[in-house]
């Protein structure tokens, strides 16, 4: 199970330093809890048992991880308008731009998002900006991969933590599929994803991310 492997790696990384901060200790404990819960789910699946408790424990642990890397005071806020998010989408020279798609929800989880596609020959890139409103359930899936120093490589590609404009993020590359993904966690609230197909490498994803005003995104309220 991929989640088990990721949790083990992150737990090891977080446990390797000295003089850890309270947030780092919280993330370390959450990673260990995720590892145990994922292993319990795997064992239950293999034995044909009930996975409900393990999944509930995993969700709780992922919320703890999200709280460690997230921001705000732990309370969700109203997401910004989709018009404000549309204004953050970049213009890319040489790429045809599609019509932006947008969505905003207020319940049960409040968030807003916009995304659009760019095409250049056979290459396609999708850019998405999401305002989580500090909702930890939205941040949690990213939390493990944002751990500083995280790196995983296989014969199929790699995934690793990175930093874009001073903001934490992570990237993935699938070499056979020529598919890449670059994710940036902006202002401890906004999720920015740049992903593409039929690419030579992830360089173009970094170039596009560099064209986005991440400071402006972080200042949105």
CATH topology of the largest domain: Protein Transport Mog1p, Chain A
Give the C-level CATH assignment of the largest domain.
Answer: Alpha Beta
Helix percent reads 25-40%
As a whole number of angstroms, the C-alpha radius of gyration is 18 Å
| Percent in strands | 25-35%
Structural class: alpha+beta
Mean pLDDT, as a whole number? Answer: 81
Head-to-tail CA distance between termini: 38 Å
Number of strands: 9
The profile of the biggest β sheet is: 9 strands, antiparallel
Order of SSEs: HHHHEEEEHEEEEEHH
Q: Spans with pLDDT under 50 lasting ≥5 residues?
A: 1-18
Task: Write down the overall geometry.
Answer: globular
Task: Give the tally of structural domains.
Answer: 2
Q: Number of helix segments?
A: 7
CATH architecture of the largest domain: 3-Layer(aba) Sandwich
Written overview of the protein:
The protein has helices at about 1-15, 20-45, 50-70, 80-85, 135-145, 205-210, 215-220, and strands spanning about 95, 100-105, 110-120, 125-130, 150-155, 155-165, 165-175, 180-185, 190-195. It is of the alpha+beta class and about 220 residues long. It has two domains: about 1-70; about 80-220, Protein Transport Mog1p, Chain A (3-Layer(aba) Sandwich). Strands 1, 2, 3, 4, 5, 6, 7, 8 and 9 form a nine-stranded antiparallel beta sheet that branches. Strand 5 (about 150-155) and strand 6 (about 155-165) form a beta hairpin.
